[in-house]
Design goal:
By secondary structure, the protein is an alpha+beta fold. Helix content is 36%, strand content 17%.
């Protein structure tokens, strides 16, 4: 009998977490092998390895404790990957050298699979004087574009692209540009963005007072605080970003405020971290701990919950010693504080199983009680670990005892901490758990409500056929097993019908017992009025939340996941889109048929001696034609490397299926700094944009998209640059477009390179 509660769970395991050889041959024969691999790896740092391996296996078995995906995929594999989910990178210096040193660190971190968070508030605003070079600064957003390009290039370990979070203080002179940045759907697509909102700013908003925008002690200008707040709200209302982080509250509540200041978070926001801080996550699956679900005595046994928490804390503490780190600074930070982020998943399912409606006052009260138990059990376990293995190196008993979180704990736990110290500086956090919740049988994610009771999904198979399967929420499936075809009780509620302030109530109930933070998305209806929308953020601040993120379906961002069959992705690989934004492909890339139909297009770029010949071959699925592969040929050998790389990447994307029209967006958005060219009466900003235009016209011709710019999130408009200037070729030594004919030979004015030697 399979351990998986749903077919989607087994598919997720096989695609994301099952250990395989390089050629795809499975090493983990079953999910039990995966659990055993993790348990053995995390027990390896213990003296009693065999004993702790069995106990760790018992916690993992049947999906009761769910380590974060990095641990499930990486522990015990011997691969050079980090077991930490995310990092906040070092403080960005306000200097060109320092900025690009940090860019390198970010690339190395992503290479090992870590997402990153950055505070760009330390970079001087656009237009500020740059001493020594007689120039004006380009501002933090220009460098965010550089980071964004890097993230598009670096593929994280496994199959997931890197994720990034960018923050900017509400008093930075470029804050208005930062707020508006995501209005362009083609810009900063690899970033989540959040505004660091301070308590004085919120007071100024309440009083409708002035607000100074400051950098380096200089006031650049003064705005009305309420006007700035309304700009944040309007941007979030229109295109779901930026999020809001109440940074003063985070620092005031931080157990370690005596040794660190926080200015950034991991990409999903549940871990506010200092420079080089690391995000280590795991979740107790509350849905698997409910005794007698839907019965008269349905409950979670506090003793069993506390025992599970103690095992989870020990396992996560061992990860600190077992994991690799991309940078030594990250390793030093993690080992000095040993912070972990133990949270929950399946909360909404568990509430449904005990007869409580998510969002109701009674459900909020029960949520607070469960999380109080978890917090106390976590700190108790960490104190006992400190007695056994020693406290974290930066533990200061007197300073630590004053932390608000410590003062909320039970008296016996406070006494235990005073006696032994703590092994881990911070212990609790609630992550979105998008993928691992599917892995555990489609339990409700993190602290979120049930997204949908059930939905249909079509899965494209390698042979081109499609299967349809019903994906059922874990609690709904449990109800069917309990009561057959009886209608769901009234206390079942989904994200589509939940009132926004009910979301806030649940987040606020959990926050006192979470020493880090909570990743929570408050779904609001598309037709919510603007004033009611703003009330959500006002209530979040008033009720003690550390941040607030909302999602309103709109034309810019679309919808997160469609429940109705009519809105499902039609011709591609069906994807499960978690609240974190991760896309999980449900099948391998399509095999190439022996023959394909296609078209070849000729493109003659004015500055190139030879034409490009672009061949696009199509495949027919379910009666619909779609692009399958691309080839680009040219006699110009200078183009050879990048055209081969480009075609391989585009073809790989096409073979995955789904809506691949974004390839057109990305190519058409590329601008050549030398200037573009007029082609067929239209200004084209680069040769890559010309290729994008060819692919777009082909998609139109086969009916994949309706027309030019249609079906795209954005249709970039060509900005005429350097019109009338005919640039020379690029220097093969330095890359500058500064080659000039000198003494009968092409010579670079920038570096002195000459083709004549």
């Amino acid at each position: 009998m399979t351990r998986f509660a749903a077919p989607i769970a087994e598919q997720i395991w096989d695609m994301k977490y099952r250990l395989k050889q390089g050629d795809g041959t499975p090493i983990d024969g079953s999910v039990e092998d995966t659990w055993r691999r993790i348990a053995r790896a995390l027990a390896d740092v213990e003296e009693d390895k065999a004993g702790w391996e069995d106990r760790f296996y018992g916690a993992l078995e049947d999906f009761k404790y769910l380590p974060a995906g990095r641990i499930v995929a990486g522990a015990g594999t011997g691969r050079s990957v980090t077991l930490f989910n995310c990092f906040v990178m070092g403080t960005v210096p306000d200097s060109m050298g320092g900025i690009f040193d940090n860019l390198k660190e970010a690339a190395l971190t992503m290479q090992q699979g870590g997402g990153i968070g950055y505070d760009f508030s330390t970079i001087r605003p656009k237009g500020a004087e740059v001493l020594g070079v007689a120039a004006d600064a380009s501002g933090p957003l220009s460098f965010m574009d550089v980071w964004d390009a890097m993230c598009r290039t670096i593929m994280s370990a496994g199959s997931r692209r890197g994720a990034m979070m960018a923050t900017l203080r509400c008093d930075h002179p470029d804050i208005e540009a930062f707020i508006a940045a995501k209005s362009d759907a083609a810009r900063l697509r690899m970033f989540n963005v959040s505004v660091l909102v301070t308590d004085p700013f919120m007071e100024a908003v309440k009083a409708d007072g002035p607000w100074d925008l400051v950098f380096g002690g200089r006031v650049y200008r003064t705005v009305q605080a309420r006007d700035l707040w309304n700009k944040i709200m309007r941007a979030t209302y229109d295109y779901a970003e930026p999020g809001v982080i109440f940074i003063d509250r985070i620092n005031a509540e931080n157990n370690l405020n005596y040794v660190e200041t926080i200015a950034a978070t991991n990409p999903c926001g549940e871990q506010p971290l200092p420079p080089y801080g690391a995000c280590l996550l795991g979740s107790i699956n509350l849905s698997r701990l409910v005794d007698d679900p839907f019965g008269a005595d349905a409950r979670i046994d506090p003793v069993k919950l506390s025992e599970m928490v103690a095992l989870a804390v020990r396992m996560m503490d061992n990860v600190v010693d077992a994991s690799r780190f991309p940078l030594e600074a990250q390793a030093a930070e993690a080992r000095a504080k040993r912070r972990i982020g133990l949270g929950v998943t399946g909360l909404a399912d568990a509430l449904a199983m005990v007869g409580l409606r998510y969002g109701a006052p009674e459900a909020a009260e029960m949520t607070g009680e469960w999380l109080r138990l978890i917090a106390n059990a976590s700190y108790r376990a960490s104190a006992l670990l400190a007695a056994e293995k020693g406290a974290f190196p930066l533990y200061d008993a007197a300073a630590y005892a004053k932390a608000p979180m410590i003062l909320r704990l039970d008296a016996d736990v406070q006494a235990l901490i005073a006696q032994h110290g703590l092994r881990n500086a911070l212990l609790t956090s609630i992550a979105p758990t998008g993928t691992i919740s599917l892995f555990a049988g489609n339990v409700s994610s993190g602290i979120e409500p049930i997204f949908a009771n059930s939905y249909k999904r079509k899965v494209l198979q390698p042979d081109g056929s499609r299967t349809e399967e019903e994906v059922v929420d874990y609690a709904v499936q449990a109800w069917r097993a309990h009561a057959g075809d009886t209608a769901l009780p009234d206390h079942f509620v989904t994200a589509q019908t939940l009132a926004p302030l009910d979301h806030v109530r649940m987040q606020a109930a959990a926050q006192p017992w979470i020493d880090s933070s909570i990743s929570k998305t408050i779904n609001v209806p598309a037709d919510i009025d603007f004033e009611s929308f703003k009330d959500v953020y006002t209530e979040a601040y008033a009720t003690g939340c550390k941040g607030c993120t909302t999602y309103r379906p709109n034309d810019v961002t679309g919808s997160v996941l469609s429940v109705s069959e009519a809105d499902e992705k039609a011709d591609g690989v069906e994807a499960a889109e978690a609240a974190s934004g991760e896309v999980i492909y449900m099948s391998e890339p399509l095999d190439r048929p022996a023959t394909l139909e296609g078209h070849t297009y000729k493109v003659k770029w004015p500055d190139s001696e030879h034409a490009l010949y672009i061949t696009i071959n199509d495949i027919v699925l379910s009666g619909h034609r779609r692009p399958f592969e691309v080839f680009i040929n040219s006699k110009n050998m200078e183009h050879f490397a990048w055209t081969v790389a480009l075609t391989r990447m585009i073809s790989a994307v096409f073979r995955r299926g789904g809506d691949v029209s974004f390839v057109v967006e990305e190519l058409k958005a590329v601008f050549d700094p030398r200037g573009g060219a007029w082609m067929n009466g239209k200004y084209v900003p680069s040769i890559l944009a010309a290729i994008g235009g060819v692919i777009e016209r082909h998609m139109i011709s086969i009916g994949f998209i309706a027309g030019e710019g249609m079906g795209l999130k954005s249709d970039p408009q060509a900005e005429v640059v350097n019109l009338g200037h005919k640039p020379g070729p690029a220097c093969t030594s330095c890359g500058q477009y500064d080659m000039r004919m000198a003494e009968g030979c092409l010579t670079c004015n920038s570096c002195g390179y000459s083709k004549c030697g």
